[in-house]
Amino acid sequence: MQYLFDENGRRYLDGFGGIATVCCGHCHPDVVDAIVKQSNRIQHSTVLYLNHAIADFAEALASKMPGNLKVVFFTNSGTEANELALMIARLYTGCHDIISLRNGYHGNAGATMGATAQSSWKFNVIQSGVHHALNPDPYRGVFGSDGEKYAKDVQDVIDFGTTGHVAGFISESIQGVGGIIELAPGYLPAAYGSVKKAGGLCIADEVQAGFGRMGSHFWGFETQGVVPDIVTMAKGIGNGIPLGAVVTTPEIAEVLTHRSYFNTFGGNPLCTAAGLAVLKVMEKENLQEKCTSCRVLSQKETN
Ligand SMILES: Cc1ncc(COP(=O)(O)O)c(C=O)c1O
């Protein structure tokens, strides 16, 4: 659980394993048990044999979402989740332009690397239609903690860099690889307002911030009082199991019914059984509440 052992049997207290979200991290018995039980029942691709594991987890995950965010698609990673979210936004709106933040990270495939702008992780890809807006960084940004002033740049990008119509906007709620940067207060409501006026969908990338880690809220976007059109997640969702998800509304999800969308392994029985077990452990062991205490403690130490 909280310990790791090296090749000589030396014990380490693991304060590093961020993806291992459930209490104390490694080999949680409830998660191990769920994986073993599901492996003994059936493990295969997601699409061939109908199985309850996927529906059970989708239902549990949807219950953690606000508003009408009730349709869940599973993927194998955060990159895939964001690729799917960007594709849905483009299909739904019929537009191509995406706005993302400087210093953001969203994955390492075509569309997601295009949306990524964090310089240490940025590779040069064809990124037609991607615009990187001013980062609302309350520590180093020109407008300090005034989120609305940074959001004006999103409106400028729409006004001066597009036809006035966009497919969507994607951002983390706390930038992970960008240095644990919380977005300046008031940023998301103002930025979402501009994007919605331009017909775009707002995508919240919760790959690093989600799953109770904020303490005060289960999802990072909730700290800014917004409800996105699409939420993506991965990493902590499976406590180390390769799993990601995209959650959206039934109306938006409908765009994927026009052709046959599938993902061979995304949401396979073993991974979704593990995901459900992780979510149950988070609730059983009050992990969100414990994160609140940790944040209060670390803020006191910082002060
Ligand atoms: C915010 C964010 N989005 C997306 C990703 C991509 O996830 P994955 O590495 O599972 O493809 C990452 C990975 O670090 C991330 O931090």
From TrEMBL:
Instruction: Name the top EC class.
Output: transferase
Q: Which cofactor does it need?
A: pyridoxal 5'-phosphate
Q: Which Pfam families match?
A: Aminotran_3
Q: What is this protein called?
A: alanine--glyoxylate transaminase
Describe the family membership recorded for this protein in Swiss-Prot or TrEMBL.
Answer: Belongs to the class-III pyridoxal-phosphate-dependent aminotransferase family.
Q: Which reaction does it catalyse?
A: glyoxylate + L-alanine = glycine + pyruvate
Record InterPro entries:
Aminotrans_3, Aminotrans_3_PPA_site, PyrdxlP-dep_Trfase, PyrdxlP-dep_Trfase_major, PyrdxlP-dep_Trfase_small
Cellular component annotations (GO), alphabetically ordered:
mitochondrion
Q: What PANTHER family does its record include?
A: ALANINE--GLYOXYLATE AMINOTRANSFERASE 2-LIKE, PTHR45688
What keywords would UniProt list here?
Photorespiration, Pyridoxal phosphate
Q: What is its EC number?
A: 2.6.1.44
Source organism, top-level taxon: Eukaryota
| Signal sequence annotation | none
One GO BP annotation here?
photorespiration
Annotated GO MF terms: alanine-glyoxylate transaminase activity; pyridoxal phosphate binding
